[in-house]
Amino acid sequence: MLLARIVRGALKIRYLLLGGTLAGGYSIQKSYEDFKKGLPDVGWLNNILPSNESVDAFRGKMITFKDKFRDSFSAIEFDPKTKELYGDKMTDFREWFQQRLDDAIKASEGAPSGDPGLRFLGLGPFQTDPGDGDPMEAAPAAAFAFTRPTTTSGDDTKQNVTMQQKLDSLQQELADVQLKYQRELEKVERDNKELRKRLLLRGNETVVQRKIKKSLIDMYSEVLDELNDYDSSYSTQDHLPRVVVVGDQSSGKTSVLEMIARARIFPRGAGEMMTRAPVKVTLSEGPYHIAQFKDSSREFDLSNETDLRDLRKEVELRMLNSVRGGKTVSQEVISMTVRGPGLPRMVLVDLPGVISTETVEMAVDTRQAISAMSENHMANPNAIILCIQDGSIDAERSNVTELVSKMDPTGKRTIFVLTKVDLAEQNLANPDRIRKILSGKLFPMKALGYFAVVTGRGSSDDSIDEIRNYEEQFFQKSSLFRSGVMNSAQCTTRNLSMAVSECFWKMVRETVEQQADAFKATRFNLEAEWKNNFPGLRELDRDELFEKARGEILDEVVNLSMVSPKQWEEALNKRLWEKMVSYVFEKIYLPAAQSGNAGTFNTTVDIKLKQWADDSLPRRCVEVGWETLEEEFKRFMSRSERRRDHDSLFDPVKRAAVEQALHDHDWEQRAVELLRVIQLNALEDRAVHDKRHWDAAVQFLEESIKDRLQTTEQMLREMTGPGVWERWLHWRSATSEHVRRAAVRTELDKALHADYEHPPQLGYDEIMAIRNNVKTSSGLEVDNELIRDTWRPVYRRFFLRKALARAYDCRKAFWLYHQDVAEQECDCNDVVLFWRIQQMMRTTANTLRQQIINREARRLEKRIKEVLEDWSLDAEKKRTLLTGRRVSLAEELKRVRQVQERLEEFINALQDEK
Fold this sequence. Notes:
Strand order of the largest sheet: 4-3-5-2-6-1-7-8-9
Structural class: mainly alpha
Number of helices: 30
Radius of gyration: 51 Å
Distance between the termini: 30 Å
Strand content: 5-15%
Oligomer: single chain
Number of domains: 3
Shape: elongated
Largest sheet: 9 strands, mixed
C-alpha cells in the first residue's frame, strides 16, 4: 500500500512538470508568433541597391543594436522557476537572433560594394516572396536584404534621392523594431518579478526550497509553543535555542527588537515600565509586513498607522491581563509572529527590564521577580543572550551585565549591544571607554561579539526607516568610527541582525536533534508506565475523557423516555402523598374530625381544602414533580454505575453536571396556575359514584391512618422508654423521665377508656386528678406541662384507633351512603374526604406526568447539554473533575508525543534545507 502511494505521488509530480513545461512552451511560442506578425512587410526593397556609405552606416547601426540587445537580454536576472520553465526557449530565441545579426554583419563586410546580389543574414538564395518557405526566415531576409538596380547616368541623382528616402524609412522601421524588442524585454522582466511575488505568496503550493525558507522558522516557533505548553517553567527539558533580550529598564532593549523586526510594535512609555510579561516574537520572511498573535486570526498591517496603533494597544492589554494577584510582572508568555520581506528568521523573547529600585506603585517583590524571570530564561544552555547596555549612562550604573555574566560566565552564547551611541559620543569626553566596552575590556562579562547601534533620535513618532537612515548617517560621520574606536562590522542594527540570525541557526542545528532524542526517551518511559499500570485501556486525555463522559450522560438523559406513563404516575402519586400527608392530617382531617359533628366536619373540610388549593398546594405539587424527575434521573444514573463496564473515573463529571443542571432548572411558572384550576375542580367533587372508587378510598383511608398510628406509637415509645421485653432482651433501661411519662400515659389511657367521647382538650380538673393519681400509684411528682405533652400523642392514638374502626365499618356502607341514610348511622365523611384528596392527587399526577414527558424532561436534557458544552471549553473545570494518575499520565503522553512529532518534522525540514 505504501509503495502504491509513493508511485502515485511520483506520477503526479511527472504530470505537473510536464504540464508546466508545455504551458511555458506554449506561452513563449505565442509571444514569438505575435512578434513575427508585428514585423513590417519590406518586400518592396528587393530591387533597391543602397550606396556604399549607406551600407556602412547601416552596418554600424546593426553592430550597435546587436551589442545593446545582448547586454539588455543578459542583464535580466530570471527567477529559478522562470528559468526552469522558459529557460531553454529563451536561450534558443536569443541564440537565433544573435546568429542572424552576426551573419548579416559578416555578409555586409565580405560582399563587394557593387554586387547586385548583395544578401544579408546568410539565408541562402534570396527569397523574393515572403510567402515562400518559412515566413520567419523570409521576414528577416526581406528586412535586411538589399540589391542595387542598374540605372542610367541621367537618372543617378533622382535615383540616389529616392534610395536615400527609402533607406531613411528603413532605418526608422528598424528603430521601431528595436524599440519593440526593448518593450518585450521589459515585459518579460515585469512578468519575472510578478512570478517571484506569486511564488512567495503561494508558499506551500510552489517551489519546495521557497516553502522551507518561508515556513522553517514558523515550524520552530510552533515547537517552542509546544514546549511552553508542556512545561511553562522552562525546565531543563526545554533546551531549544531562542534569543533572549535582556537589559536595564529604558536601555533601548525593546527598540533593538523593533529595529530587527523593522516595525514599532511595542507600546511606548516615558520612564515607565511597559514590558510586564515575556513577549515571544517569531520573525519570518513574507511578501507583506504583517503581525499576528498566536491565538488570533487578525493580521495587523505594519505599514498602516491605524493597525500599528491597534497592535500596540493589544500588546499592552494582553500584558495587563496577564498580571494577576497584585503582581507587577507576569511569567505568562505572549506569542506573536512578524512577517515581512527580507526579515531575518529567528525567535526572540523580550523580557521586562531589570530595575534597581521598586516604586510605590509596584509589588514589593517586583525586582526579585524580574531577576528570577531573566535568570529562568537565560538558564537555558542554548539560549542566545542579547545583552543590551545603555551607552548614554555611566557603565557603573548597569545591573544587567552582572546578571548576564552570572548566567554565561564564558560568554559563549552572549552578544553585547551598546545602544544610544550617538548620545554617548556627545556625553563622553573620553572615547577610550567606548573602545574598551566594544572590545570587552570594561565589563567583567564576556561575549561572542560586541555591537554599537543607534535606535532613535528621541522621538517616538520616527519610523523605522527614518531611524535606520539616521543610524547609517551617524556612523558615516561619527568621529568614533573614523578614529577606529569601532569597525564597520560592529555598527548598525543591520549587522547585528545578521550576526544574531547566524548564531541562532547555528545553535538550532546543533541542539534540535538532542532534544528530539530526549523526548523520545521520555515517551518510551511513559508508554512503559502506561502498559504496566493501565493495560487494555486507551490513552485518553482530559478532553477525550470528558467527551466520553458527556456521551454517557446524554445516553442516560435519553433513557428518561423509556419510563412508562404508569411508572411516572405511580412515582408521582407516592411522592405527592409523602409531601402532603402531614398537612392533610394535621391541618385538615384531625381538626375537622375531632369536632364530633358531621356538618361542622364538612364545612371545615371545604374551607380548608379551598384555602390549601389557593395557597400552597399547586406550588408544592410542582416541587414534587421536579423532585420526582430528579429521583428518576438519578435512579438511571445509579443503575449505570452498577454495570460491569462502568468506569468510576466519570462519576464526578456525571454527578456535577446533573447537580448543576438540576440546580439551574426551573419548572414553568404557568404550570402552577394550571394545577390550581385542576385541583380546585377535583376537590369540589363530593359524590362517589362508583363502588370501586369507594373501596379504593376506604383502603386509602385505612392505610393512611395505620401509617399515622404507627408514627404515633413510635412517638409514645420514645417518650415512655423501653418496655419490659425490650429491657430484658436488649438490655435497655428507662430514665426517670421515661418513668414519669409512662405513669402519666397509664392514667391518661384510663381516663380515655372511661370517656369514649372525650374531647381533644384536657381540662384543668382532669390534669390535677391525673397528678394526684400518679403520685398515689407511683409516688412520682409530675407537672402540668408534662401531662399536656403526653396527652397529645395519647389522645391522637386513641382517636386514630376510633377512626380506623370507623373505616372498617365504612367498607360496606357504600349503598347506605347513596341512599342518604342518616349521618348517625353512616358516618363516613372521612372516606369522602380521602376520596376527594385521592382524586385530586390522581389528576395532579397525570398533569405532572404530561408536563414531564412533553416539556420538562426535554428542558432538563437541553440544560444538561448546555452545562456540558460550557464545561467542554473550561480547562480548569476538567482538571477539577477528572483527576488521578491515569489522566495525568495520558495528558503527559499526549504532550510528549506532540513535542516529539514537531521536533522530528522540524528536523526533516532543516535537513532538506541543508
